[in-house]
Each structure stands twice: as C-alpha cells, then as structure tokens.
Amino acid sequence: MDMLVWNIVLSFVSAVGLWLLKSHSDEVKRLGILLSRTREENADKFVTKQDMHNDINRVLQRLDRMEEKLDAYMKESRSALN
C-alpha cells in the first residue's frame, strides 16, 4: 500500500515537471519566432551601406555641379566689372 502511494506521488510530480518543461520549451520557441520576425521587419527600416554610398555620391555630384555654375557666374561677374 505504501508503494502505491509513493508511485502516485512520483507520477504526479513527474507529470507536473514534464508539463512545466514543455510549457517553457513552447515559450522559448515562440520567443524565437518573434525574434526572427522582429529582425526581418527591422531590416527594412535601415539603409544598406551601398545605398548610403550611392546617395552620398549623388549629393556630391550635385554639389560639384553647383560649384561649377558658381565659378562660371563669378567669372562672368568679374569680366563684366573689367
């Protein structure tokens, strides 16, 4: 009789332990999925290094054109004064 009670208690304790282990394992899987989704969503919000270089080069080209136009205007102004 004593052995029967001991088996029931051990079975109950092991069942609760296994249930807790399974619930924690499921939670870790869920958090892993959420983390990967977050990484995918945030990747769209940032600029790649190549895109940044392309944009900077476009700005620098326009500044060079403005500089050339300004130089030409200053030469015209100087020649008009002389």
Question: Share of helix among residues?
Answer: over 70%
Number of DSSP strand runs: 0
Overall shape: it is rod-shaped
Output the helix-strand order. Answer: HH
Instruction: Summarize the biggest pleated sheet.
Output: none
Identify the notable features of this structure and list them briefly.
mainly alpha, 2 domains
In short:
By secondary structure, the chain is mainly alpha-helical. The chain is built from two helices and no strands. About 90% of the residues lie in helices and about 0% in strands.
Give a written overview of the molecule.
It contains two helices and no strands. The protein is an all-alpha fold and 82 residues long. The longest helix has 42 residues, at 2-43. 91% of the residues lie in helices and 0% in strands. The protein folds into two domains: 1-46; 47-82. The mean pLDDT is 91. It has helices spanning 2-43, 49-81.
